């Protein structure tokens, strides 16, 4: 079974600065998806960024980018030019691309609470 | 159109009671997922549907939990003989197909068992 670990329960950053959230995972599969989701106090999970394991290039979405290290099974999220609206709980998640009954489900880490200071 | 909706937003029930939680997925989405999120934790998978059938229910914690999706759209998560340990936020998500990478989440139902 796959596991996802986020070792930083809380992080903080000054507005306009850069912060990196860490995530490691364990899997025996060679192809999979990795995601970062944002969950504000409204509880609605929002997809921030995704990475396909077969792609060597790190994904980027505006101020959000990832550092995907497949051999190390590491998947960190970098937020540049942090904004007050970035404050939320962030979850790293794994999804298998292999067939079978576990195909569709997401496996989440424990989350990191991000505080942005003005 | 509208996103995933879940009703009720909050539910308080007494230990031992039966509850139903409803999920309305995005129109046209064939895959539907249920997750449970305990306080301060990440969501944990419960069950997912492809169309009307439960493709994987391996995350349901015990036989008190059951979910249906009779017409391939709306889904109901049913919990019998509720226990205090069932208190959590229950999240529903949908995707266009099972192959779609993005799951769209609803705002969740916060269940409190007293």
Polypeptide structure, described:
The complex is a heterodimer of chains A (118) and B (114). Chain A is built from no helices and 12 strands. Chain A is mainly β and 118 residues long. Chain B is globular, with a radius of gyration of 13 Å. The mean pLDDT of chain B is 94. The interface between A and B is medium-sized, with 24 and 28 residues.
Give keywords.
heterodimer; A: 118 residues; mainly beta; 6-stranded mixed β-sheet; 4-stranded antiparallel β-sheet; 12 strands; 0% helix; B: 114 residues; 7-stranded mixed β-sheet; 11 strands; 48% strand; globular
Topology overview:
The complex is a heterodimer of chains A (118) and B (114).
Chain A: E1 3-5, E2 10-14, E3 19-21, E4 24-26, E5 32-39, E6 46-52, E7 60-61, E8 64-69, E9 74-79, E10 88-96, E11 106-108, E12 112-117
Parallel strand pairs in A: 2-12
Antiparallel strand pairs in A: 1-4, 3-9, 5-6, 5-10, 7-8, 8-9, 10-11, 10-12
Chain B: E1 5-7, E2 10-13, E3 19-24, E4 31-37, E5 44-50, E6 53-56, E7 65-68, E8 75-79, E9 88-95, E10 104-105, E11 109-113
Q: Could you tell me the radius of gyration of chain B in angstroms?
A: 13 Å
The strand count of chain A comes to 12
Along the chain, the helix and strand elements of chain A come as: EEEEEEEEEEEE
Query: Gap between N and C termini of chain A, in Å?
Result: 41 Å
- Uncertain runs of chain A are none
Q: Helix/strand/pairing class of chain A, anyone? A: mainly beta
Q: Mind summarizing the main beta sheet of chain B?
A: 7 strands, mixed
Q: What is the helical fraction of chain B, as a range of percent?
A: under 10%
Structural class of chain B: mainly beta
State the assembly state of the protein chains: heterodimer
Percent helix of chain A: under 10%
What are the segments of chain B in which pLDDT stays under 50 over at least 5 consecutive residues?
none
Q: How confident overall, as mean pLDDT of chain B?
A: 94
The dominant shape of chain B is globular
Q: What sequence of helices (H) and strands (E) makes up the elements of chain B?
A: EEEEEEEEEEE
Distance between the termini of chain B: 37 Å
